Structure formats: structure tokens, C-alpha cells
Amino acid sequence: MSAADGGVSPAASPAAALGAGRLIAPLLTLAAVAVVSLLVAVAIGSVHIPPADLWAVLTGDGSPLHRTLVLELRAPRALAAFAVGGLLAVAGALMQVLLRNPLADPYVLGLSGGAAVGALAAMLLGLGAAAVSGSAFVGALLSTVLVFGLAHGTGSWTPTRLLLTGVVVAAGWGAVITFMLAVGPTERLPGMLYWLMGDLTYARTPWVAFATLLGICLLLMPLGRSLNVLARGPMQAAALGVPVRGLEWSIYVGASLITAVAVTTAGSIGFVGLVVPHMLRLVLGNDQRLILPAAALAGGALLVLADTLARTMIAPEQLPVGVITALLGVPTFLYLLYRSR
């Protein structure tokens, strides 16, 4: 049967199968790693749960203690960590494409600073956890609008102008945060510092972050080819028929929203959005159709394992998960800088 008759040529079929396999095989591997990381997170803690007992809980049986530990405490926290890690990694990959800068991360445009100011203000007022999360989200959106408005000015914005504006706004938010910590009551400083370092202790509602992660992946997958072209530069993308300005707007708004959701859920957790996309590109190449879903899986698994270490390293005390990601991210980032020479 000819191609004109609707068939597939003998030469095209193996190539298509090879291309599909190149995309699917790494994703299946990362999905298996993600499942294992989640199982490790719910099994390990101050009370160790053997595999047989964990299986009993997952199948609807098990002791009341194990059911409470797994279903009410560890599983929601592990799922929140996975969703936040995936969101940050996808946002980092998008920002690196948008700014065409390999050192871009989800916080490069000052979004985490705005969220931190909103959250700390709510803490200083003595508001509850829901109000703190809502204030962080509003602060993140305010920072997004502020950076884009200043970068746009009276004309069109460029990646360099956007990046410089974001750096300056982030420095301004940093000054405000320092002032709030200096004047804040002593009894509220530990909670404020934990939020700034990233903490999943009170992340009990992962479903908003999970729905956001799933939705953004489904929306971005059809744009993979356009993102590949945009990564080569706006002029080449426009010459090939890609709607550059609309695509850049979509990336900026999407990355900002998912970063706001991540920061609202767990505070400012660094290095995930910077390191994970880099590592994946070293191993898998620069195909955004593969990088974006792989970043969601790898970022989620990384943060789940980091949070497990944060819970167990000095048990019964807990570390902020941002400390663990920084300890893992700093040497990795320095290695990437050395390799980039």
C-alpha cells in the first residue's frame, strides 16, 4: 500500500517506531523510579513499616497505626513533595527555553520573593495556614505582573530585559524579607525561616498541585515541537511559522502559575528547577517533548527522596527539605558549570 493510499512506507515505519521508543523508554524508567521513591517515602520514618505491612495497608488492610501513618501522614506529604518537585522542574525547563539561558530557574524572575513577602506578612499578622498559602499565591502573582510590566515598558520585552528586571525585583523582595525578619516577633521567626527554606511539614493537600502538574503536562505536550524550534532562537522560529510572541506569553504565564502553586504548597525550595532540567539534557538530549514529562517525573522523585532524608536524617527532629535540595544541588551545579567550560 502506498503512502498516498493511507499506508506507511517500509522505511518510515521503523523510524517512527524508533522515535517513539526513544521517547517512551526513558519515561517508563523515570516513572518506575518515581513509584519506588513514593513507596520508600511512605515506608521509612520514625516508625519503619515492613514491605508486607505496607502492602496490607495499600490493599485496604493493615493495623490502625500503620494505616494512620501511611494514609493520613506520610502519603499526603509524599504526594505533595512529588507534585511540587515536578512543578518546579517543569517550570525551570520552561524558563530556560523562554530566556534561552541555561542558568534560568523558576525563581529567576523574583516570583519566590513576592510569594515569601506575602506569606511572611500573613505570619506576622498571626493568620492561619490557609491565609498564609493564599497570601503567598497573591504575592507570587503580584511579582509576576510587576516584572512583566516593568520589563515591557513602553515597547516590547526581550529575554535579556525580562531577566534583568527579574533580578532587580528579586533583590528588592530580598530587602523586604530581611526587614520583615528583623522586625518580626522572636516567637514567629522559626516558622518564617522554615517557610523560606522550604518545608513540607504542613503540606496535607497535594491535589491542587497534582492537578496543576497533570494539566500543564497535557497542555505542553502538543507544543513540544514548537518549543524545540523556539529554543534555537525567535528569528528561526518565526521563519518556520511558529507564533513566537504568543508562545512566549504562554510559557511565561504557565511557568509563573505553576511556580506560584509550588511555592504556595511548600515554600521556596531551591535548585530543583535548575538542576533537574540540566541533568536530563545531559542524558536525554534537548527534545522538549521528552524533557518536559521527564522533568515532571525526575523532579518529583528527587524531592520525594530529599524530603524523606529531611524527615529521617536527624529523627525525631526534621530538617527543611530546602536544606537537603541545596546540599544536593550545589555540588551538582558546580559540576555543570565546570562541564560547560
From TrEMBL:
Keywords: Cell membrane, Membrane, Transmembrane, Transmembrane helix, Transport. Pfam families: FecCD (PF01032). GO terms for molecular function: transmembrane transporter activity. Coiled coil: none annotated. It is found in: Cell membrane. GO terms for cellular component: plasma membrane. The chain crosses the membrane at residues 27-49, 78-99, 106-125, 131-150, 162-186, 206-230, 251-278, 290-310, 319-338. It is a multi-pass membrane protein. It comes from the Bacteria. Belongs to the binding-protein-dependent transport system permease family. FecCD subfamily. This is Iron complex transport system permease protein. The lineage of its organism: Bacteria, Pseudomonadati, Pseudomonadota, Gammaproteobacteria, Chromatiales.
